[in-house]
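Lab meeting, item 3. Inverse folding demo.
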Protein backbone atom coordinates (compact mmCIF):
# COMPACT_ATOMS: atom_id res chain seq x y z
CA UNK A 1 0.00 0.00 0.00
CA UNK A 2 2.85 2.44 0.82
CA UNK A 3 4.35 2.09 -2.68
CA UNK A 4 0.91 2.74 -4.20
CA UNK A 5 0.39 5.88 -2.07
CA UNK A 6 3.85 7.18 -2.95
CA UNK A 7 3.25 6.56 -6.66
CA UNK A 8 -0.03 8.50 -6.58
CA UNK A 9 1.44 11.39 -4.56
CA UNK A 10 4.35 11.66 -7.03
CA UNK A 11 2.16 11.95 -10.12
CA UNK A 12 2.15 8.28 -11.03
CA UNK A 13 -0.63 6.05 -12.27
CA UNK A 14 -2.00 2.95 -10.57
CA UNK A 15 -4.01 0.16 -12.19
CA UNK A 16 -6.34 -1.16 -9.55
CA UNK A 17 -9.24 -3.60 -9.38
CA UNK A 18 -12.56 -2.04 -8.40
CA UNK A 19 -16.03 -3.34 -7.66
CA UNK A 20 -16.71 -3.20 -11.42
CA UNK A 21 -13.61 -3.44 -13.64
CA UNK A 22 -9.87 -2.68 -13.40
CA UNK A 23 -9.30 1.07 -13.39
CA UNK A 24 -6.55 3.60 -13.96
CA UNK A 25 -6.16 5.85 -10.91
CA UNK A 26 -4.31 9.13 -10.36
CA UNK A 27 -4.50 11.82 -7.74
CA UNK A 28 -7.10 14.33 -8.98
CA UNK A 29 -4.99 17.18 -7.57
CA UNK A 30 -1.91 16.15 -9.56
CA UNK A 31 -1.90 17.35 -13.18
CA UNK A 32 1.05 15.13 -14.14
CA UNK A 33 -0.72 11.93 -13.07
CA UNK A 34 -4.02 12.91 -14.67
CA UNK A 35 -2.29 13.87 -17.94
CA UNK A 36 -0.57 10.45 -17.96
CA UNK A 37 -3.94 8.68 -17.85
CA UNK A 38 -5.16 10.65 -20.88
CA UNK A 39 -1.92 9.83 -22.70
CA UNK A 40 -1.93 6.11 -21.80
CA UNK A 41 -5.57 5.68 -22.81
CA UNK A 42 -5.19 7.89 -25.91
CA UNK A 43 -8.28 9.65 -24.57
CA UNK A 44 -9.36 13.11 -25.69
CA UNK A 45 -9.12 15.69 -22.92
CA UNK A 46 -12.62 16.76 -23.94
CA UNK A 47 -13.85 13.49 -22.34
CA UNK A 48 -13.65 14.12 -18.59
CA UNK A 49 -12.71 11.46 -16.06
CA UNK A 50 -14.80 10.50 -13.06
CA UNK A 51 -13.74 10.72 -9.45
CA UNK A 52 -13.54 8.22 -6.60
CA UNK A 53 -14.08 9.68 -3.13
CA UNK A 54 -13.71 7.98 0.25
CA UNK A 55 -17.03 9.11 1.73
CA UNK A 56 -20.01 11.41 1.45
CA UNK A 57 -18.19 14.23 3.25
CA UNK A 58 -15.49 14.26 0.55
CA UNK A 59 -18.19 14.19 -2.16
CA UNK A 60 -19.77 17.29 -0.55
CA UNK A 61 -16.40 19.07 -0.60
CA UNK A 62 -16.27 18.93 -4.41
CA UNK A 63 -19.96 18.84 -5.43
CA UNK A 64 -23.23 20.50 -4.53
CA UNK A 65 -25.62 17.83 -3.20
CA UNK A 66 -29.21 18.70 -2.30
CA UNK A 67 -31.20 16.82 0.34
CA UNK A 68 -33.23 14.93 -2.27
CA UNK A 69 -30.06 14.03 -4.22
CA UNK A 70 -28.44 12.87 -0.98
CA UNK A 71 -31.34 10.53 -0.17
CA UNK A 72 -31.19 9.01 -3.66
CA UNK A 73 -27.39 8.70 -3.73
CA UNK A 74 -27.16 7.11 -0.27
CA UNK A 75 -29.35 4.23 -1.52
CA UNK A 76 -26.61 3.35 -4.05
CA UNK A 77 -23.32 4.23 -2.33
CA UNK A 78 -20.93 2.66 -1.80
CA UNK A 79 -21.37 0.72 -5.00
CA UNK A 80 -21.55 0.58 -8.76
CA UNK A 81 -23.19 3.98 -9.34
CA UNK A 82 -21.51 7.14 -10.61
CA UNK A 83 -23.49 10.35 -10.18
CA UNK A 84 -23.01 13.53 -12.15
CA UNK A 85 -23.48 16.57 -9.94
CA UNK A 86 -22.85 20.30 -10.10
CA UNK A 87 -19.22 20.92 -9.21
CA UNK A 88 -17.78 23.28 -6.63
CA UNK A 89 -15.04 25.25 -8.32
CA UNK A 90 -12.96 26.24 -5.28
CA UNK A 91 -10.94 22.97 -5.29
CA UNK A 92 -8.53 22.54 -8.21
CA UNK A 93 -9.14 19.14 -9.79
CA UNK A 94 -7.66 17.95 -13.07
CA UNK A 95 -9.29 15.84 -15.77
CA UNK A 96 -12.85 16.88 -14.91
CA UNK A 97 -15.32 19.44 -16.23
CA UNK A 98 -15.48 22.96 -14.81
CA UNK A 99 -19.18 22.95 -13.97
CA UNK A 100 -20.11 19.28 -13.33
CA UNK A 101 -18.37 16.27 -11.86
CA UNK A 102 -18.92 12.50 -12.00
CA UNK A 103 -18.40 10.99 -8.52
CA UNK A 104 -18.49 7.50 -7.04
CA UNK A 105 -17.78 5.80 -3.73
CA UNK A 106 -16.65 2.30 -4.72
CA UNK A 107 -17.34 -0.86 -2.74
CA UNK A 108 -14.00 -2.65 -2.89
CA UNK A 109 -11.92 -3.05 0.28
CA UNK A 110 -8.42 -2.37 -1.10
CA UNK A 111 -9.64 0.71 -2.99
CA UNK A 112 -11.66 2.01 -0.03
CA UNK A 113 -8.61 1.59 2.23
CA UNK A 114 -6.46 3.41 -0.35
CA UNK A 115 -8.95 6.30 -0.52
CA UNK A 116 -8.99 6.59 3.29
CA UNK A 117 -5.19 6.62 3.50
CA UNK A 118 -4.60 9.11 0.70
CA UNK A 119 -7.59 11.20 1.86
CA UNK A 120 -7.93 12.96 -1.50
CA UNK A 121 -10.11 12.38 -4.57
CA UNK A 122 -8.74 10.09 -7.28
CA UNK A 123 -9.56 10.36 -10.98
CA UNK A 124 -10.44 7.01 -12.42
CA UNK A 125 -11.38 5.36 -15.67
CA UNK A 126 -11.51 1.81 -16.99
CA UNK A 127 -8.28 0.12 -18.10
CA UNK A 128 -8.28 0.15 -21.89
CA UNK A 129 -7.35 2.29 -24.84
CA UNK A 130 -10.18 4.73 -25.53
CA UNK A 131 -12.81 3.13 -27.74
CA UNK A 132 -11.57 -0.42 -27.10
CA UNK A 133 -13.16 -2.93 -24.69
CA UNK A 134 -12.08 -2.64 -21.06
CA UNK A 135 -9.71 -5.30 -19.76
CA UNK A 136 -10.53 -7.72 -16.91
CA UNK A 137 -7.75 -10.30 -17.42
CA UNK A 138 -4.61 -9.40 -15.51
CA UNK A 139 -2.36 -11.01 -18.16
CA UNK A 140 -3.86 -8.76 -20.85
CA UNK A 141 -3.40 -5.70 -18.62
CA UNK A 142 0.26 -6.50 -17.87
CA UNK A 143 0.97 -7.23 -21.55
CA UNK A 144 -0.61 -3.97 -22.73
CA UNK A 145 0.41 -1.54 -19.97
CA UNK A 146 3.22 -3.16 -17.96
CA UNK A 147 6.02 -2.01 -20.29
CA UNK A 148 5.31 1.72 -20.57
CA UNK A 149 8.15 4.27 -20.51
CA UNK A 150 7.20 5.36 -17.00
CA UNK A 151 6.32 3.13 -14.08
CA UNK A 152 2.75 2.11 -13.46
CA UNK A 153 1.87 0.21 -10.32
CA UNK A 154 -0.43 -2.71 -11.15
CA UNK A 155 -2.44 -4.12 -8.26
CA UNK A 156 -2.90 -7.77 -9.25
CA UNK A 157 -6.20 -9.23 -8.06
CA UNK A 158 -6.19 -11.84 -10.79
CA UNK A 159 -8.84 -11.97 -13.46
CA UNK A 160 -12.05 -10.18 -12.55
CA UNK A 161 -15.47 -11.66 -13.17
CA UNK A 162 -17.14 -10.36 -16.30
CA UNK A 163 -18.77 -7.14 -15.18
CA UNK A 164 -19.91 -3.79 -16.50
CA UNK A 165 -18.52 -0.38 -15.61
CA UNK A 166 -20.63 1.61 -13.16
CA UNK A 167 -24.07 2.90 -14.03
CA UNK A 168 -23.92 6.67 -14.65
CA UNK A 169 -26.83 8.87 -13.58
CA UNK A 170 -26.94 12.62 -14.25
CA UNK A 171 -28.52 14.48 -11.32
CA UNK A 172 -27.78 18.01 -12.56
CA UNK A 173 -31.33 18.71 -13.70
CA UNK A 174 -34.79 18.14 -12.22
CA UNK A 175 -35.21 14.77 -13.91
CA UNK A 176 -32.67 12.02 -13.35
CA UNK A 177 -31.04 10.96 -16.60
CA UNK A 178 -29.37 7.56 -17.02
CA UNK A 179 -26.30 8.01 -19.24
CA UNK A 180 -24.96 4.46 -18.96
CA UNK A 181 -26.87 1.40 -17.77
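The presenter then showed the designed sequence:
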Amino acid sequence: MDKTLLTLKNGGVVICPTDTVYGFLALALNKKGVDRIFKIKKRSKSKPLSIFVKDFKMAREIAFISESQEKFIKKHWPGKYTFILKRKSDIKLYGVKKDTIAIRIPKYKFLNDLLKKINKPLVQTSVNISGEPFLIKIGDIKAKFGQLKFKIIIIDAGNLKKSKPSKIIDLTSKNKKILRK
